[in-house]
Design goal:
By secondary structure, the protein is mostly helical. Helices cover 79% and strands 0% of the residues. The chain has 2 helices and no strands.
Length: 58
């Protein structure tokens, strides 16, 4: 039997991220969310985080 090839932590993380992404995508589709709604929400949250970060520094 051949030894298994060692994987880096980065490769393991990518595999786990893809698996979680697939799970999240399935749940979003079953909940009825559209891609456009999610993009809008992500951009709103990003702007809010950026705004909070700037106000905390000043």
């Amino acid at each position: 039997m051949l030894p298994k090839r060692r994987m880096s932590n980065f490769a393991k993380g990518l595999i786990e991220a893809r698996r979680l992404s697939e799970i999240i995508t399935r749940k979003m589709k079953s909940a009825g969310f559209t891609h456009e709604e999610l993009e809008k929400d992500v951009h709103e949250v990003f702007r809010e985080i950026k705004r909070n970060r700037n106000s905390n520094r000043g």
